[in-house]
Amino acid sequence: MVKLIRCNSKSPDFLSLTKELDADLSQRNGTVQLSYDKYNKLPDIETVVVAYIGKVGVGCGCFKEYDNQTAEIKRMYVKPENRGNGIAKQILVELEKWARESRYSRLVLETGLKQPEAIGLYRNKGYSGIANYGQYAGMPNSICFGKQLTGKQK
Known about the structure:
The protein is of the alpha+beta class.
């Protein structure tokens, strides 16, 4: 059974999981990842979700404000041995719920072309491809998505 806990970016489990995420991204992307690493530092985020099985953190995600109406999903990760069990979907649904509670009406996110599992998850949850935004504009290895949070949800 998966338990989702809302916390902040100082959570030891979040910090541990994001270290694993960084290693996974470096393995997938090689030296290209170095140009993205600076955008993945989130020292003071209050909107983090960690997924637990028992007392073990197995996945995470968070969001931060992009603009007054939009939040950006960041640092989505599930340990390889726990993938395929819907944990990422549960984390994403919880982040969407929290973003709505925080009065955001839209979400955006960036993922990499070498992350087909993430691309599939976002498309499955109603995210649509958008132009690469902000720091990801002109980054050929990035793919960006957006989703309106108003109206009927999937």
